[in-house]
Amino acid sequence: SSTTNSVLRVGPLKPSLEETLTATYGAERLPDGAARASFLSEHARDVRVVVTSGRTGVDAELMDQLPGLGAIVHFGVGYDTTDVDRATELGIGVSNTPDVLTDCVADTAVGLVLDTMRGFTAADRFVRAGRWPVEGNVPLTRKVSGAAVGILGLGRIGSAIAHRLNAFGCRIAYHNRREVAGSPYRYAESPAELAATVDVLIVAAAGGSATRHLVDRDVLESLGPNGFLVNVARGSVVDEDALVELLAAGRLAGAGLDVFAGEPQVPAELIEMDNVVLLPHLASGTVETRAAMEALTLENLDTFLRTGDLVTPVVSPAPARRR
Ligand code: 8YV
């Protein structure tokens, strides 16, 4: 009916957000598996908004099953799990949570640069294993201050990373879909050209089909045996098989990864390597930032239900979908 304000949760969300969605909006969670079809036949027509995250998203099939869907509200800046092209065709609005997580993701990228180049967590394992009194010094590492840094994707997060590493005296270059007018940093024409000229390549590009394997074998070979890779974007942006192979062959110096192609699964070969730092997609995971992401998610939801508009739209809802 046209009076319904039904909100559907798709995939797991921050527990406090799930609680608010359930208590304040009466939102139910879309069941997985066999229970889904009967749930949809009962509730599909009532659903006006989906709240989801970069972990799950909404595919074209689910959109087609929700005829009254007006908006897909994401907890997170990345929305590559949602079929945005199909949403645009159907006039369904899509929102994300930009800006509020930029600092924490950039902080994490800098942390991974420091950790991979200086070998902190590997040295921590060395101390914990009781090897210091027996073996003495750990091997020398690589200097971060003054290093040549390449940033792939000079958007909000890439720019915040550049700003931080600029304060480390790093020489910064970048590659982006389009050259950024007025940027103080050197523009490289391609990811491979960028990789060939830097000590560390930091991936900060959006995920999705347009950037799939943008960091391919050729880019990784250009980075070379003295080069480090850091990824705080999406695992899909990097050819992970090539990464593993080149690391195993000593043709890359190391890698710092917060994201993986098949996360939460991490390739077994990487687990064995001492020159890689492996994080469980934690970049935005601080109390402050997750609270801000939650607030912005609810602001998008509330605003859509009240006005038919989104606060931070990726796609604005079409008039017919705003009712
Ligand atoms: C979130 C992220 O943890 O914002 C993003 O795109 O990847 C992370 O901040 C994730 O989206 C939540 O599932």
UniProtKB/TrEMBL annotation:
All residue ranges annotated as the D-isomer specific 2-hydroxyacid dehydrogenase catalytic domain in the record: 40-314
Pfam family, one: 2-Hacid_dh_C
The keyword Acyltransferase belongs to this UniProt entry's keyword annotation: no
Annotated ranges, domain D-isomer specific 2-hydroxyacid dehydrogenase NAD-binding: 110-283
Gene3D superfamilies per record: NAD(P)-binding Rossmann-like Domain
Keywords for this protein: NAD, Oxidoreductase
SUPFAM superfamilies found in the cross-reference section: Formate/glycerate dehydrogenase catalytic domain-like, NAD(P)-binding Rossmann-fold domains
Highest taxon listed in the record's lineage: Bacteria
Record InterPro entries: D-isomer_2-hydroxyacid_DH, D-isomer_2_OHA_DH_cat_dom, D-isomer_DH_NAD-bd, NAD(P)-bd_dom_sf
UniProt keyword Oxidoreductase, yes or no: yes
Family: Belongs to the D-isomer specific 2-hydroxyacid dehydrogenase family.
PANTHER family assigned to the protein according to its UniProt record, in alphabetical order: 2-HYDROXYACID DEHYDROGENASE YGL185C-RELATED, 2-HYDROXYACID DEHYDROGENASE-RELATED
The protein, known as: 2-hydroxyacid dehydrogenase
Organism encoding this protein: Gordonia sesuvii
